[in-house]
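Consider the following assembly input.
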Amino acid sequence: MPTQTTVASTGNTVVAEAMRQCAPDVVAAYPITPQTTIVEEFAKFVAQGKVHTEYVCTESEHSAMSACIGASAAGARVMTATASQGLALMWEELYIASGMRLPIVMANANRALSAPINIHCDHSDIMGARDAGWIVLFAETAQEAYDNTIMATRIAEDPEVLLPAMSCLDGFITTHSIDRVQVMDDESVSEFVGDYEPQNALLDVDNPVSHGNFAGLGGPYFEFKKAQRLAIDRSKAVIGRVGEAYSELSGRSFGFIETDMMDDAEVAIVVIGSSAGNARHVAKQMRAEGVKAGLVKVRCFRPFPAAELAEALKGAKAVAVLDRSETFGAEGGPLYTETRSALYDLETRVPIVNYVYGLGGSDVRLELMRSVYTDLSDIATGAAEPSGLQYLGAR
Amino acid sequence: MQQLTEIRWHARAGQGAVTAAKLVAETALAADQYMQAMPEYGPERMGAPIKAFTRISPEPIDIHCNIENPDVVIVLDDSLLDVVDVAEGLVDNGTLIINTCTPPDAVKRSLGLSDSITVACIDASGIALDTIKRDIPNTPMVGALSKVTGAVDIDAIKTLLVSTFGKKFGQEIIDANIASVERAYEEVATA
């Protein structure tokens, strides 16, 4: 069993620690709030000789991801981190990384997108990149951010998968808060992620290959895209296996979704990230008051856990999906539309409503969570009709 | 000890409130408690009013939002009393600890606080100038917190000052900080 040390640490510090333990060959990064301390601490590890990584300071996130792609295609284990505008600036490279099947691991410190300018938490950045062919994991706590980073490395590099993976943590709320975290010893992590054996490495001169070629009309472009879809579908089994192996090693569970009090729940909230804790806290209070409240936290967004959500929510009388991002002009937020779709084939229709909340770091107060459960109770008893998209706590 | 203790810090940027919130959290961890410490990040300018938060609990902490109804409020600069409603949301039997030369009953009157609230006053700046030789009142305020609420243990604070400050500073600075904690622990006055 691994030796675990309990530390008082921020989310960013333990993500940097997980990166060091995974020992990437190359990290190419550009600092951006609230991600900065991840790459700052990692750069310090490199300077102190605590990890033997080629650390590349780039002039932008566009260049950072380009350098990551080059290094990964060459055959290196590659990691980076970004947030918000930085992730947006990487947009074209995100698709190139997944299209070239490069298992780059990136931490994303969830932050709002401009305009207006805002440095605080929401999920607009990652939700804009959700369909870029990356595996996407979310953390509620610093502990999960640490765990996800390690798991993401093994998932991405699995020969069955070979896709880039993102480990998301909430800006400031998780990145900058000091929390109680268990960190494993270096050897256990190193053994868990294993040595990286690159497939189709450019530097494998005995087996020459090329990457990202022209595959125009009549070429295999269509088939490449289908192969990516099959790979991310296959990743589900791998994520499940890696999650189980990690739980066994660390003693901390991992599921595509994690449920609380859902066995007999009549009203349920579906949510991603740090706000899941707030919902859990309030759900426990509601239980004490006789309301059958439950909670579903989504920890893996890509591949989307549709079957797991349908199974967890099928007995509920009213469900609220909380989105920390806006998808202007869509039926609702991205978590809502996909959760609703996941419930379509259920025999009994489950009433489902959508709240957009916490944009730009707007504080997710407990009374807001309580108001959602109260609204759901009214829907469950028939005292109220399910309404359209609502803005939780907007003035 | 009660289930969950929520502490809100008011200070001016540069006074070390974040370091103090962190020190309290680490002391709690050393006592095998669960804890959180988070600053409220805004535009960072030296002297601007800032807030920080600490939660301590024997059980894992689920909540990840700001503290609106603190059990304890700690004010590192009494000039904030004219600018910020430091007692906002303080629970009925809560505690307010202020770095000031004004006696606690006078503070209680001027803020219009109810009798159920404990007000504790300490000249933390004076102690800091005597011991650390700079007006950084953060560590004395932690000493006062220990005495008034028992949320953290004074010996544990001192042990942590040695281990954490020891990485960055020399023995002289560590000793000065420990002296500041001890003096505040002895000198804090409550009403």
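The longest strand of chain B covers residues 49-57. Ask yourself how this observation constrains the way the partners meet.
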